[in-house]
Amino acid sequence: MTEQPFQLTAELQQAVSSFFQRIPFNQVLGIQIGELTMEQVTLHLPMKPELIGNFIHGILHGGVISSLLDVCGGAMALIGAFANHQHLPVAERMARLSKLGTIDLRIDYLRPGRGQHFTATAQLLRSGNKVAVVRMELHSDDGTLVAVGTGTYLCG
């Protein structure tokens, strides 16, 4: 008997969306979910005065950049974990996924975060039974690559 290929159904997309929308810090930052697929997660962040790190130049705070990339990477790791744990009973799967957390995060700041809207994307590099590795990018509204990151997440 062969296992069916994993599908990210609308129900699972809603579960990932709900999980991240219930984190108060994501709401404070104003993170908006764009795309949730098996291949990529896309999040959006509108600029607002509370997110400025350099008030002279109106540049996005580095901590906000790091947080946004971490949230994006975590969402991608969660989707990978759904696929890896699809064979488990729902209760056990949810218990494992509730332990999702960042183990390691590296952010490379490439250019100042100038703009009115930012887009973060994440792609899964590896998803194992317990750990996932994700690559993230942040672009400003004019397409400028602002930062890249690699995150390692506990997901099981």
From TrEMBL:
First and last residue of the signal peptide: none
Major enzyme class: hydrolase
Keyword Chaperone: no
Provenance organism: Pseudomonas cavernae
Gene Ontology terms, MF aspect: fatty acyl-CoA hydrolase activity
Enzymatic reactions: a medium-chain fatty acyl-CoA + H2O = a medium-chain fatty acid + CoA + H(+); a fatty acyl-CoA + H2O = a fatty acid + CoA + H(+); a long-chain fatty acyl-CoA + H2O = a long-chain fatty acid + CoA + H(+)
InterPro entries xref list: HotDog_dom_sf, PAAI_dom, Thioestr_dom
Stretches assigned to coiled coil: none
The entry's keywords: Hydrolase
UniProt-recorded name of the protein: Medium/long-chain acyl-CoA thioesterase YigI
Annotated family: Belongs to the YigI thioesterase family.
Domain of life of the organism encoding this protein: Bacteria
One Pfam family hit: 4HBT
Domain Thioesterase: 57-147
EC number: 3.1.2.20
